[in-house]
């Protein structure tokens, strides 16, 4: 498979990877190329910028969730029909799980034999930049650093000095530079970048990004590097069924400014297993459709839309009715918060929510949890039987309080570096709610079980009607 591809990495977090990757995606898209975007790791927010830049859904390439073969399958499947694949890395190029390369940009680059464009933050540097570039080039012979891009360069003279010494001493071509341009920085909030769908005038921002990039970056050389990537072997189908099933259930997915943390391949796997995905908004939809067979409420930023969520009472009432009738509901992280009795926001005020769980959620100014973990299923639920082990990811600034002590728990979590298991999530009939983010492509059996549970509810609903 000849797939032009390049991975955008950096020496460290905060060097400008997302800004650069998004700008490159937008530049090539505007030049008429079909660009397929990807993101290394579990991040939900960066893919939103990729979608805005290219018009194509970005895919997460996460070796901890998917393994090497899973990453190859997801990559090859999404690359169909694309002229160019641009992969945004995570953290620094070689930063992985603990002291290993697991989950790193380097591991993905090797799995896909993708050439790497290394972004180097050149502030206050001259000859030392060559030492840094040389170290990154030589650290792992399996990673091919095909070019370097310099960010936060002080002036054209500064760039010429850096380019000369890096190419002479490190033996890596320098493909261009970006100066100190505060106006192209992407906005942040407590979970990271501001989601693309919340940023006003994003199209104008992308135009500025492209204009800055085209001033100082050799895009034609970059395209040559991507096209020179070696052919990939044909990838087997281990996650997705060879023949997708026809739709047999209608699965509601709440996707709006408050809830938009979903893995595209996870949604597509549910569809391939027979779920017709119906997108809804907890902010603006008046009610759930009456013919839904299940509901998936993903993560997001409900804490930033509490007043508007609380005001949409008709939607929450329809959710309570459907749940009381036995409709399967899967809620993770932000979804868990939404189905609590209420949420105490950053301002300390209490806002009423859907009330499927009797507890209350409270926002904190400091992060409560971040990282991958293994989840041991404690009680049979709509995704997995008791005893199953799943891999998930946590990232939240809130906690759940005032839950009854005897309420059935969902998981026992083993977090990285911790010996003691932590209880998380709740199970109540056809409800599973947890802070844990899952990637259905990493646990196809859980996706299949969810769809089957929806099918059983549909059969019961149709009979009763």
TrEMBL record:
Domains (record comment): Comprises of two domains. The C-terminal domain contains the binding site for glutamine and catalyzes the hydrolysis of this substrate to glutamate and ammonia. The N-terminal domain is anticipated to bind ATP and cobyrinate and catalyzes the ultimate synthesis of the diamide product. The ammonia produced via the glutaminase domain is probably translocated to the adjacent domain via a molecular tunnel, where it reacts with an activated intermediate.
Listed name of the protein: Cobyrinate a,c-diamide synthase
Marked site: Increases nucleophilicity of active site Cys: 437
Pfam families in UniProt: CbiA, GATase_3
Miscellaneous section: The a and c carboxylates of cobyrinate are activated for nucleophilic attack via formation of a phosphorylated intermediate by ATP. CbiA catalyzes first the amidation of the c-carboxylate, and then that of the a-carboxylate.
Gene: cbiA
Keywords on record: ATP-binding, Cobalamin biosynthesis, Glutamine amidotransferase, Ligase, Magnesium, Nucleotide-binding
UniProt key word Magnesium: yes
Protein species of origin: Desulfofundulus australicus DSM 11792
Residues of the active site: 333
Domain of life: Bacteria
Endoplasmic reticulum is among the record's keywords: no
């Amino acid at each position: 498979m000849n797939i032009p591809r390049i991975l955008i990495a950096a020496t460290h977090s905060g060097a400008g990877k997302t800004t650069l990757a998004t700008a490159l995606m937008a530049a090539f898209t505007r030049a008429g190329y079909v660009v397929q975007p990807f993101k290394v790791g579990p991040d939900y927010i960066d893919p939103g910028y990729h979608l805005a830049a290219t018009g194509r859904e970005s895919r997460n390439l996460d070796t901890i969730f998917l393994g090497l073969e899973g990453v190859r399958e997801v990559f090859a499947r999404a690359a169909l029909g694309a002229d160019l694949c641009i992969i945004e890395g995570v953290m620094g190029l070689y930063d992985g799980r603990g002291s290993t390369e697991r989950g790193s940009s380097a591991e993905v680059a090797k799995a896909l034999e993708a050439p790497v464009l290394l972004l180097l933050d050149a502030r206050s540097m001259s000859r030392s930049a060559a030492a840094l570039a040389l170290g990154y080039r030589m650290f792992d012979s399996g990673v091919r650093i095909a070019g370097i891009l310099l960010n936060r360069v002080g002036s054209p003279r500064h760039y010429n000095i850096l380019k000369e010494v890096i190419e002479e001493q490190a033996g890596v071509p320098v493909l261009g530079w970006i100066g100190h341009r505060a106006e192209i920085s992407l906005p942040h909030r407590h979970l990271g970048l501001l989601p693309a769908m919340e940023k006003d005038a994003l199209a104008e921002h992308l135009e500025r990004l492209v204009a800055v990039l085209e001033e100082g970056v050799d895009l034609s050389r970059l395209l040559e590097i991507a096209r020179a990537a070696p052919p990939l072997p044909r990838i087997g189908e281990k996650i997705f069924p060879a023949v997708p099933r026809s739709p047999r259930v209608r699965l509601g997915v709440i996707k709006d400014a408050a809830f938009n943390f979903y893995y595209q391949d996870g949604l597509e796997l549910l569809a391939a297993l027979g779920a017709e995905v119906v997108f809804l908004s907890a902010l603006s939809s008046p009610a759930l459709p009456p013919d839904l067979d299940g509901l998936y409420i993903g993560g997001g930023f409900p804490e930033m839309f509490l007043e508007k969520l609380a005001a949409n009472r008709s939607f929450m009432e329809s959710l309570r009715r459907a749940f009381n009738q036995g409709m399967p509901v899967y809620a993770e992280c932000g979804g868990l918060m939404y189905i609590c009795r209420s949420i105490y926001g950053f301002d300390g005020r209490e806002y009423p929510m859907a009330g499927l769980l009797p507890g209350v959620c409270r926002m904190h100014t400091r992060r409560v949890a971040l990282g991958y973990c293994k989840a041991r299923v404690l009680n049979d639920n709509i995704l997995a039987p008791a005893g199953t082990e799943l891999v998930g990811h946590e990232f939240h600034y809130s906690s759940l309080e005032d839950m009854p002590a005897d309420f059935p728990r969902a998981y026992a979590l083993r977090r990285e570096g911790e010996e003691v298991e932590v209880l998380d999530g709740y199970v109540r009939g056809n409800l599973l709610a947890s802070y844990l983010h899952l990637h259905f492509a990493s646990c196809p059996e859980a996706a299949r079980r969810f769809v089957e549970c929806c099918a059983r509810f549909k059969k019961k609903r149709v009979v009763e009607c």
